[in-house]
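Kindly review both lines to help learners:
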Amino acid sequence: MVERLIVIGGDAAGMSAASAARRQVPGSELEIIAFERGNYTSYSACGIPYFIGKDVADAGALIARTPEEFSRNHDIDARVKHEVLEIDLNRRAVRVRDLSNGTDVWEGFDQLMVATGALPVRPLLPGIGAEGIYGVQTLDEGLALRAALERERPRRAVIVGAGYIGLELAEALCAWGVEITVVGRGQAPLPGLDPDMGILIADAMLGYGMNVRLNETVTGFETTDGKVSAVVTDQTTLAADVVILGLGVRPNTALAAQAGIPLGETGAIAVDQRLRTGIEGVWAAGDCVEKFHRVARRHVRMALGTHANKEGRTAGINIGGSYATFPGVIGTAVTKICDVEAARTGLGEDEARRAGFDPITEVVESTTRAGYYPGAKPIRTKLIAERGTGRLLGGQIVGEEGAAKRIDVLAVALWHEMTVEELLNIDLSYAPPFSPLWDPVLIAARKTWQKVAAERTGTKLG
């Protein structure tokens, strides 16, 4: 008898799960149907800002596989413009609406994959529904924003939110020659960085001619003839021809919660390491599920495409009858604003304290290449370690010219629970065009270890 797998969500987690399940089980034994309410499947949401900023000329380049390709090459029935409105666990069926004609049908399942992703935060502020206010969560929204930029050629843009998406869209708007203002509630851009690191991003943005307004909260929007004309904050009113919301996301869990699929302590769907929800035959992955943080040792909400793809793959392998686990996350992320790059992994200073650690920190200034080699750029590296043991808890990097990818060294060290003493002796590559003799990561590790050792022994080490 042929079993049926229904997948809710046709992007990273959902289609990774469908593809992994298909690799395990042929179509003669497992029918796979995926429902996606948007117009596209398996696209790079992370690439949308670079399409808006003209680095990527064709939106089609962001699409990994179309529904036709899934059908032809993988025997997966991927249906776009189909929204799942209800899950009935007793009937083992979902109610699906065909958005092209408005008709509803019930589709039965043996196995169910919930990959509903995340929803952008869109606060209920006066004027929020005005024309000219954009969120950029999906490819459809990215296409709409780029079309508006081409059509209207705005002069003034306000970006609400100074997180990863806000900064990437600020960079994207540089290509359109608009006056850019970024409004953020925190002390510095990129809340994932400690303020002493994030302030470097603010300085760079000012150097690029952007207006940066920090410690400021948006309270509403002014409109003219139904179109946004200004952003109102608790401090001023900012004229705007276009507004982009970059306030983060929240897990899209309403469908699961209404069906009785358990949510976890974070408000996202609770899953185990195999991505099982606790309901027999029901799996979940991606931005809608909570993750186990391997350093903080607790569940967190964290929306990253890298996690979604890995979780989807893990779920699909298990759905197909094999065995796989997803062991957790450590919060590694990277971004850039024009020439300045920023990256982080593990815990920040305050996060470490909230997780119950007594952190010790070190910040070092260095260069991306040997100081005498042409093109060397400044780089700041910050490490957070546990006082006493020297265990690495987190790291942050801000710099230019590929500086941020050094975060991957720290991510591997964190994954394996290394101390800063162990880290400083890692055999990293060296040549003057690529790094100083002591790589900035190793300098930071050495300086942090010196602090740890001095407190432990009372002896200053070199």
